[in-house]
Amino acid sequence: MTYKNFFFSLTLRVLGLLVSLSAIAFGIALKNTHGIIGGSLITLLLLYNLYKLTVKRFVEMDDFFESVKYRDFSRLYREDKGSQDIRKLRHGFNLVNKTIKSIDSERQAQYLYLQKILEMIEIGIIAYNVESGKVLWANDSLMKILDFPSFKNINFVQKRNPKLYDELFETYHSNTTSVTLDKAEKTKVLISDTIFEIEDKSFKLIALQNIEETLNRNESEAWKKLLSVMTHEIMNSIAPITSLAETLQVDIEKSLKNPTAEKLELKDLNAGLITIKKRSEGLMKFAKTYRSLNKVTHINKSSVKARDLFKSISELMKSSMERRNIELLFDLKDNNLELDIDSYLIEQVLINIILNAMDATSKVPNPKIVISTNVDSKGNVEIRVTDNGCGIPSEIMDRIFIPFFSTKKTGSGIGLSLSKQIMLLHGGKIQIQSNVGTGTMVLLIF
Fold it and tell me: Which chain regions cross the lipid bilayer (predicted)?
């Protein structure tokens, strides 16, 4: 309808121009001065009016396109002034602005909704421009996992931690992969990433899931199941021993009551006793290997000075160290440092670690084990046990905390897994850093 009104106005002016030009032509032909002058004036007036009619609409449209260019859809065009077609044109502009504002509001609501969801989940997510490194979006979970403040460009990570930068942003993980992030406290995460394009720009989306706590929780559940299984196995071992002992007891009692009628077969008695002895020895060996597991179902914390803990360890290990000619050193930076621990269990942890260090240093010259303390930037107390032994091969590092895994011929595979369980009950962590041929450092974080 707007275009019909405009076409009608335009047609009238064009027809008027034809009439005025015809008047000028007749005036020239008839040499009529009044006709020439009158026709010329009317023609000029109609040309000006036609110019205003056309330009006014282009100005309106140019103004609208300018607002679109700068995404200013808040402007309201007046529909109560101007010609009918101008009013309808402005009504159309207002309708377009209203529709775009509605779409933009819906888009912003969806963005906020998505942002809230991504903030609530525990998976760290970051999207950034591949070329410039500018961060498009990152949630708080990512900053918590990386232990970084909020940053606008990934170059910040490169300056703070190059190894972490290479693992996250330089390495492409086509499938979900388990990696250990090299930071102040090593953290095991699942990482996956993908590349996507918006217009002519490439972006990379990375997702990180902290599985350290999940692994610890699953491991704790596995320990409970293990204890249940072990109890079942012990009971299964005791049952036949009890049954055989009762049988032998009945035979002996019958023989004692009636020696003539019920002769006691000494060979059978001896065979039964040998069977009981062998099964008892096996059960004893089993119990000795795994009996320490039931000691970590609960802990009794108390405030213990680090120097007293180290003194106790020194007295316990002194003779063993002297026999094997290993130097045991203690580095206590704060003589009044206190720990809120179950001293019996932590002594057990330290003894397990020191025994492993003794084995690792058995074939190196000038064997040395150093036990030191430290307080990190977060106020966590750390105990470090460092040796100059043979180190742990990288291919078995992921298995050293698995119960019953051992590289020693006489090892039970309980020491480190038990130590980790004790540290988890203390709300702490145990971490190991090792280089083959250089040595190993075991870090207890409280």
Answer: 35-51
